[in-house]
Amino acid sequence: MAETRAAEWVRPAIRALSAYRVADASGLVKLDAMENPWPWPAELREGWQEALAAEPVNRYPDPAAGEVADRLRRVFGVPEAADLLLGNGSDEILQILIHAVAERGRTVVAPEPGFAMYRLLAEAAGMEFVGVPLGEDFRLDREALIAAIAEHEPALVFLAWPNNPTGNLFEPEAVEAALTAAPGLVVVDEAYHAFARESFLPRVVDHPDLIVLRTLSKAGLAGLRLGFAAGHPEWLAELDKIRLPYNINRLTQATARFALDHWDAFEVQAAAIRDERERLYAALVERPGLAVWPSAANFLLFRAPEGQGRALFEGIRERGVLIKDLSGAGGALADCLRVTVGTPKENAAFLEALDGSLRGMS
Ligand code: PMP
Which of 38, 117, 154, 277 lies deepest, with the highest CB count within 10 Å? Predict the structure, then answer.
């Protein structure tokens, strides 16, 4: 094909980015993306399909997704004083948040290692991103965070709670300290809430500049793409202006209504994943040469023997299991890999592939 003029016209901030890439998992046991490994319970499938079949997809969906929002409030105990904004995954809400405050010369602050989208979206919007290194064992370095806030006066601070990819919950007091110190908006991203079960959601009532973010992805509906933000009506009204009309499609709304009416089933699955997480953690602790960190999420971060992160990842993949290789990032994540908690069978396959790969390297 002939050359385009993209190089001339695409903004330099975008040209400088690398796309968020997802590895090909075909034929592999998929433990790379923090999905719930179980499909819908069989007894729910028929009712769900009936709900979908009743949807007139020739018509636009409810633009406010009101019936979904009502159920989200009820199921997750959103304080009455808070407003909600729904997104096509919480990723879309991150983009809306950045879009709302982006201006050249403004800064976004978040701990690092952290969720890659915070930096990507901030830089794409022409903002400066300041990553604050985590302390020992990936604890939030409260002094460093407060110092970064004082120095950069960020428009936005992101705190993933639990953090991805480290899996830990930062100390609530450190999060509170950031809330007090920040001059702008603080977003506590609770994507992994189903596995941590602690939340800042009730605190949006006392902190007008706190927004809590949730998603249905990790609890079992990653394919659905539904996330929500809860916070002060003034913030939410501004964000709503740049939400695309009809961003939550009819099939997502119908599925979410049905799923939220049967949320107990997803809670049972989340409890099983938490149990499996503890078993997998214990199994990793036993493996000589590996370091593993406790997790409040549905994944575990572990470190391969020095200099062997990439080789260990590849050895595991060659044996049929896909996890996430973070070793390329270096720094605090040197030789680190992340495994999502799967079914007992998948976790056994992972441990077998891990052992085979470790043996192959020694
Ligand atoms: N926040 C964090 C911390 C995440 O790890 C993820 C998913 N990797 C998301 C948000 C986005 O989730 P989704 O768009 O599926 O709601």
Answer: 154
> What CATH class has 6-41+265-361?
alpha beta
Q: How far is Cα 291 from Cα 285, in angstroms, rounded to an integer?
A: 7
Nearest CA owner, ligand 1 atom 5? 164
Tell whether ligand 1 has an atom less than 6 A from the beta carbon of residue 185: no
Q: What is the CATH number of domain 56-263?
A: 3.40.640.10
In this prediction the pTM is 0.97
Q: Where in the chain is the domain with CATH 3.90.1150.10?
A: 6-41+265-361
What are the residues whose beta carbons fall under 8 Å from the beta carbon of 122, sequence distance 6 or more?
A: 98, 102, 108, 128, 129, 156
Q: Are 283 and 351 in contact (CB under 8 A)?
A: yes
Task: Read off φ and ψ for residue 334, nearest 5 degrees.
Answer: -55, 130
- Ligand 1 atom 7 nearest Cα: 191
pLDDT band for 328, please (50, 70, 90 cuts).
Answer: confident
170-203: per-residue pLDDT in tens?
999 999 999 999 999 999 999 999 999 899 999 9
pLDDT tens per residue, range 46-69:
999 999 999 999 999 999 999 999
Compute the distance from residue 361 Cα to the ligand 1 centre, in Å: 33
Q: How far is the CA of 95 from the centre of ligand 1 (A)?
A: 12
What φ, ψ does residue 150 adopt, rounded to 5°? Answer: -65, -40
Structure tokens at 183: 């001059």
pLDDT value, residue 275: 98
| Rounded-to-10 torsion of CA 49, 50, 53, 54 | -140
Span from the CA of 93 to the centroid of ligand 1 (angstroms): 10
